[in-house]
TrEMBL record:
Gene Ontology molecular-function annotations: hydrolase activity
Keywords recorded for this protein, A-Z: Hydrolase
Domain AB hydrolase-1 residues, every copy: 81-197
Protein name: Alpha/beta hydrolase
Gene3D superfamilies: alpha/beta hydrolase (3.40.50.1820)
Length: 289
């Protein structure tokens, strides 16, 4: 479903939910972003409070952003940007707690919004790659990813993208990411409801399919949820787990550090031990120590 967008559409400023499930980011700068609707194809410009400031074509939204950038003297507070990616069937606001924690540490944080249930991991990586290619005034990036977001990072970082010629990659943190695939996804795959809700990415997280994503080539911290018991939070999985992903499934070859925290999958990124570990890892100048 696409519609013809007026050249100069009239905009009324009003609050939005920031994108949630049907919008993908195309551009980001100091809290402002341009998003595209996955069905209609039209774009919108949101400010740092997720209020809509313009809509229409990407070019029109970018032109309007340039106006606001000059008007408000918009700037990043740091040249080191932490890019946070949410998991499957989630949205950017689920990563707000880690972002607030890192902002207090002096980092600029970009909470990526991507339509996780409508596209494949490669498609999500395409989107993030395009956004990073357009990034301005940033010298270093680190990535903090929950669940599916970690696989998106693995695919993204395997590419020789334009942004990598101007921006240094510092660290990668993967939280509850099924780096070896999630057996529970394979169990539910025969169900029509699961395939409908989870979309292409729900297939990508199955064992045997994640092997196509390159191993991380940057210092990597892996954090898993679990209870340090044989049954974890979900006895069905028959080993320690966070309710969805087992501890062993999160591990990836070449990881720099590993941490297990007592938390379930949906909130493992918010656990105090997780936040502490992220902060220490991003600040550490010698990740192998």
């Amino acid at each position: 479903m696409r519609f013809q967008v007026p050249d100069k559409p009239v905009n009324l400023r009003f609050p939005t939910s920031g994108g949630k499930y049907f919008w993908e980011d195309l551009y980001y700068f100091a809290g402002w972003r341009i998003q595209k609707h996955i069905w209609t194809g039209h774009c919108r410009l949101l400010d740092d409070r997720d209020a809509r400031r313009s809509w229409g074509s990407y070019e029109h939204c970018l032109s309007q952003f340039r106006h606001f950038r000059n008007k408000y003297d918009l700037k990043f507070s740091s040249t080191h940007l932490v890019v946070l990616l949410h998991g499957l069937a989630r949205h950017k606001n689920t990563m707000k707690k880690p972002a607030r924690f890192l902002t207090e540490k002096g980092y600029d944080c970009y909470l990526v919004n991507y339509p996780s249930t409508f596209q494949s991991v490669e498609d999500h990586a395409d989107q993030v790659e395009e956004t990073l290619n357009r990034l301005e005034d940033i010298e270093t990036v680190s990535f903090v990813a929950h669940s599916l977001g970690g696989l998106v990072c693995r695919e993204l970082l395997s590419r020789n993208s334009d942004w990598r010629r101007k921006i240094k990659i510092s660290r990668l943190v993967m939280i509850g990411t099924p780096n070896q695939g999630a057996r529970i996804a394979r169990f539910f795959d025969p169900l029509w409801l699961y395939r409908t809700i989870s979309g292409p990415s729900g297939q990508d997280v199955q064992p045997g399919r994640v092997s196509r994503f390159a191993l991380p080539s940057v210092p990597t911290l892996v954090i898993a949820g679990g209870r340090a018991t044989k049954s974890g939070f979900n006895p069905f999985l028959q080993e320690d787990n966070d309710g969805i992903v087992t501890v062993e499934e999160t591990k990836v070859e070449g990881m720099t550090r590993f941490l297990r925290v007592p938390a379930i999958h949906t909130v493992v990124m918010d656990h105090p031990e997780t936040l502490k570990a992220i902060g220490e890892f991003l600040q550490d100048q010698d990740p192998a120590s």
